[in-house]
Amino acid sequence: MLPLGSIFFKRIKWSCIVIADAVVNFRLRSIAIVLSMVCFSLSWLWPVQNFLWEKFDNELFAFCGLIVLGFFGLSRSVRLTWPILAILIVGSVPIFQAVTGKIILSGDGYVCAIYLISFFVAVCVGLNLSFDSGSQLIVQTFCVTVLVVSLLSTLIALRQWLGIADSIWEINYSGARPYANLAQPNHLASLLSFGVVSLFYFYERQ
Fold it and tell me: Which spans in the chain are helix H?
């Protein structure tokens, strides 16, 4: 029979290990959330355009933010449904077509597969967040990020409309409608719609 002091210290040691593990997981989760939101912000605000693929950097930032949030922002138990798995199966079709030569330019198949698999990851993250007890922090952080980016994009669009957008942080404006750093007016409209939805979210939580 173990002495009472030995049992007490073992319990203390076990409790410290559990608390340390929880703190580490919480810090990793918090860092992952912040890093993913920074990537999402850059995907909307990054002003650099490539010659062959204008918005490659922006889409790369969005992809990195999604991957970080998916791998580190969620709990260890991941839920999947058959409709979500169907998206993954459809995403593998362009890869099969590229490998078998059905697509002349194989790179097009791989790019399509990356977009479809990214959509699968986004839906999977959304589903699992709906069951996660700590999802409120992620949702609120995302809404704050969308609001800040929407305000900055509105400021850039106003400067483009007034013809004074000449800094290195703004895309050189050309055309009839301003588009901030998103390069397309419809993309800016979608972002501003997200900002309005975020405002409604915080209003309803009061």
Answer: 4-45, 56-72, 82-99, 106-131, 135-162, 185-204
